[in-house]
Amino acid sequence: MKHFTKGLCALTALLAVAGSALAQSDADVPDRTDGDGPYDRLVLRGGYLIDGSGAPTQGPVDIVIENDRIAEVRVVGAPKLDIDAERRPAAGTREIDVSGKYILPGFVNLHSHIHTLQDGQGTPPDYIFKLHLAHGITTIREVANSKPTAWLADLRERSERDEIAAPRIYPFTAFSPSESNPLNTPEQAREFIRDIKRDGGVGVKFFGAPEEILWAALDEAGKQGLRTTMHHAQLAVTHANVLDTSGHGLNSMEHWYGLPEAMFDDQVIQNYSPDYIYQDEQNRFGEAGKLWTQAADPYSERWEEVMETLLERDFGIIPTFTIYSASRDWMRSRNADWHDDYTLPSLWDFFRPDRHAHGSYWFDWGTEEEVAWRENFDLWMTFINEYKNRGGNVGVGSDAGYIYQTYGFGYIQEMEMLREAGFHPLEVLRAATQTGAEIIGAQEEIGTVQVGKKADLVIVAENPLANLKVLYGTGHIKLNDETGEVVRVGGVETTIKNGVVYDAEALRADIRAMVADAKSERGLPEGPMPIVTQGE
């Protein structure tokens, strides 16, 4: 999640080195050494299937995968009965017994960033990709980073060929000016969009721009067949709220900026305090937590008007609740189970209170700010759940790498927060799979477990419909009544992407080792990372 000015300036400076970035691709992302396959014929035997369409669980089923495609899905019995051997597909070159386990489509993360060691977070792409795969994420929509479109397109091709251990990548380039690509006229904006298409991008991420430039860019994106999304930055939202942008062809939005502003009925501009300064991030995020209370009431005339207009336009919303969750409970977010073993110390440094790092706005964050954000969430979630109920497209995105959200883990937390908003667990999983594929226009290839589609699958031993926490890499803690012991269960066991079988626990072990090594190199002890400067 990048704001319109600081993020824009950083992107501008870093995009200026585009010529050398592509050459660094191989060095930044190593060739794949994890995962086995694809196989001529891989058979999964006896699992319970949640197919992503919203249909209830089926099974047990056998699934046949030939190379990178699903070739057959066959129900082979009923729970607590012997498998009907006559129904079973023929043997494969490899078989995996998944009896009693749950099979889901690969997850689609619609808000991902591929940072590098050179960025503020100090996170190598391999770390990010492995955490995604270890949580069942087989497709990501990359929505702006410091690298040029050609670098991302190269990664996309390498991932599709399974040369790197990474999810499938849909690169959405940031619409941002640089020295070589100024965006001061509509024609310059159109040329920038054409360059994205030429360099292999599939979409554009907007933050804001003067009206004539933004509308020209959106129009050109439509002509070039590029999908679009937008973080409606406050610096531009007075002329570009979600009704304005969707009316000019924007396909989807990130976060929620621009949505409550479209529902103002007794004001035009956010009620900023007199001493508000956008670049003071506690100031900005603190007052953002009061924005939904300024919008029209739920189910009011103006609220309904905005809802119906977005539905008519088949508009996609990726709320990324999770990236703001620390704002309502900072202590809980900074003490999450996974930080000790899975959050790199460089990333932790980026998370801590810091006026230089984006999203590290905890300069003096207290009860009043958190209470305001809880009310903000209540109203926001009401709109999103109702939008889903009326047929609107709501996708799952994490925006990890900021605000105490670690890659992979933040995505599962987003699922939990959609459940909190009112989604049924099946609706949560549909948003993470089928709807995600639809929003990026990939529904013919991915999103559901269906014959002919890509073999992107997630296998977990526990039932995620009963408890989404079992999808976290750290699993779920419960009491074993038979032994009297407290045990940890869950965690994705296997992720299959393009027919390549990844041991998810082995990927997580790689990450734990990477984090332990990074701590050792810095002379840091095992265990919790300090929130205050060492020595204080």
Molecular structure report:
By secondary structure, this protein is α/β, with parallel strands linked by helices. The protein has 2 domains: 6-32 and 105-439, TIM Barrel; 42-104 and 463-521, Urease, subunit C, domain 1. The protein has 19 helices and 18 strands. The protein has helices spanning 6-15, 18-21, 25-28, 125-134, 149-160, 186-198, 211-224, 242-247, 259-262, 281-288, 301-312, 325-328, 330-334, 339-342, 345-351, 367-389, 409-421, 425-439, 504-521; strands at 42-49, 58-66, 69-75, 94-97, 102-105, 107-112, 137-143, 168-174, 203-206, 227-230, 252-254, 316-318, 393-394, 457-460, 476-480, 485-489, 494-497, 500-503. Strand 7 (137-143), helix 5 and strand 8 form a beta-alpha-beta unit. Helix 6 (186-198) runs parallel beside helix 7 (211-224). The longest helix is centred in the last third of the chain and has 23 residues, at 367-389. Residues 1-27 have low confidence and may be disordered.
CATH superfamily of the largest domain: Metal-dependent hydrolases
The end-to-end span amounts to 31 Å
Say what the CATH topology of the largest domain is: TIM Barrel
Task: Please compute the radius of gyration using only Cα atoms.
Answer: 23 Å
In what range is the share of β-strand residues?
Answer: 15-25%
Return the domain count: 2
Architecture of the largest domain, according to CATH? Answer: Alpha-Beta Barrel
What is the number of helices? 19
Largest sheet: 8 strands, mixed
Helix/strand structural class: alpha/beta
Instruction: Give me the count of strands.
Output: 18
- Mean pLDDT reading: 92
Shape: globular
Helix content: 25-40%
CATH top level assignment of the largest domain:
Alpha Beta
